[in-house]
Design goal:
The chain is α/β, with parallel strands linked by helices and about 220 residues long. It has one domain: Rossmann fold, CATH 3.40.50. Helix content is about 30%, strand content about 20%. It has six helices and nine strands, in the order βαβαββββαβαβαβα. Helix 5 links the parallel strand 8 and strand 9. The longest helix is centred in the first third of the chain and has 14 residues. The protein is globular. The termini are far apart. The relative contact order is 0.22. The N terminus is likely disordered. Keywords: Chemotaxis, Hydrolase. It catalyses: [protein]-L-glutamate 5-O-methyl ester + H2O = L-glutamyl-[protein] + methanol + H(+). It is an enzyme of class 3 (hydrolase). GO terms for molecular function: phosphorelay response regulator activity; protein-glutamate methylesterase activity.
Amino acid sequence: MSSLTETISIPTGQRAIDGLATDKIRLVTIGASTGSPNLLRNILSNLPADLRVPILVAQHMPPRFTESLARSIARDAALTVHHAEEGMPVLPGVVYIARGHQHMSVWRGDGTRPKLHLSPEPVEKIYRPSADVLFDSADEVYPGRVLSVVMSGIGTDGVEGATRVRRSGGVVIAQHPDSCVIYGMPRACDRAGVSNASLTPEEIRLALLRFASPA
């Protein structure tokens, strides 16, 4: 497990989100990498089927592994779970797992219900799927109404998109360092000062219930 090696003051625990408006959230996005697949399974498999928002996940893995992840979560979850495909409508109560080697973004090209777009572009984003690409697009379609979660993983993917989400009035949750295999991605958000809260995986699950459950 990783631990703090520097002083970063980020609110922790459920009290950290007590003062945040929960009814404004319309989309949950999750960026994850090394150390996160099992945590994602546990979190998403223990959510109810009647969530009022979609959940989009960018997990750094090759295609056959992202497909396996989607299948394993779908097997245990009450939620509907899809391995993302081009043009899929973004629906409440559905989890979309990005395909490996493809960025997943949200778009509203024809002015109707938002849909998924899959592409290897931009190539300068070395992680495909990229949390930054996902978070940026989510904020474009749902400005101020996105909850972005940054989980265990190497590097800094997610901090740029999380910064945009936070500046627009959305909510950013970073995984607590003590529960991370690699604290890189959450640390980048914590150091940038964009994390509303630093939560354990179980606290993240409870936060998703709080922000995404029906009124």
